[in-house]
Write a structure and sequence with these properties.
alpha/beta; five-stranded parallel beta sheet; three-stranded parallel beta sheet; disordered N terminus
Length: 245
């Protein structure tokens, strides 16, 4: 693991610091419907619900519900990436960041960045901290050492809190009538979103709300580094020996 901590040199060739400092919550304009905790078995279907010019952002873990290097996880990531969806970081194993040391935080970031470079040929410019937990020391480190824009959310669907599908559908119907920019939190690990999200998107689009990725709604670049080739799996494509969820 210690060798991975040299990885800050990989992405930092593009931006001298995060494109936006501090914690970003609401979009600057329009609406971002986002998903955390994947890749997972529902991620492809959820991504495919966004049609035409609408896109979403998936904030992914490396080793949470599934290992990012699993054949199915790689296929899910590549499918959604090729369909124009944005892939951001959500740390490697979904820890509470305030419980980590700076070195442990570095490892959480480096492992995800290495994996996404191998799998997609990109290094994300955005990170969403698990549980929205971001102490000041970690924020400064992510902004300045890792050149990452830190993104939380402005509206929570409460899908991870077992809010009933009917209540979440009502939530979307209510917020669709707002003209405020919104960054909405969902989780692609929640099966009930297969029922909720189609109606949510219809409600938002009926109100002529444009559905963007987070980087689009913040007017920043999605990746610190891009243009790499898809890698070929080898013995390094493993979650063995890495932090566990």
């Amino acid at each position: 693991m210690l060798a991975l901590l040299a990885l800050p040199l990989l992405p930092s060739t593009v931006h001298a610091a995060a494109q936006l400092m501090g914690v970003q919550t609401a979009c600057k304009h329009n609406v971002a419907v986002t998903f955390d905790d994947g890749p997972y078995i529902y991620s492809t279907d959820l991504g495919d619900m966004f049609k035409g010019s609408s896109q979403t952002t998936f904030f992914v873990n490396g080793n949470n519900y599934a290992c990012i290097y699993d054949t199915e996880s790689v296929a899910i990531l590549r499918h959604n990436f090729e369909n124009g969806h944005e892939i951001g970081s959500h740390t490697w194993s979904h820890p509470t960041i305030s419980t980590l040391t700076p070195r442990e935080l570095d490892e959480q970031v480096a492992l995800v960045e290495e994996a996404l470079w191998k799998i997609l040929g990109v290094v994300p410019a955005l990170i969403r901290p698990p549980f929205g937990d971001i102490p000041d020391w970690a924020l400064q480190r992510l902004n300045n050492r890792w050149n990452l824009t830190v993104v939380n959310w402005s509206n929570d669907s409460n899908d991870s809190e077992d809010a009933p599908a009917a209540a979440r559908s009502l939530f979307y119907a209510q917020i669709a009538g707002s003209n405020k920019p919104m960054n909405i939190l969902n989780h692609d690990t929640e099966e009930s979103n297969l029922q909720v999200i189609p109606g949510a998107l219809r409600a938002l689009q009926y109100r002529h709300r444009k559905l963007l990725t987070v980087s689009e709604c913040l007017d920043i670049k999605p990746y610190k580094r891009s243009g790499g080739r898809y890698g070929v799996p080898d013995e390094t494509w493993t979650c063995a020996g890495t932090p566990q969820p």
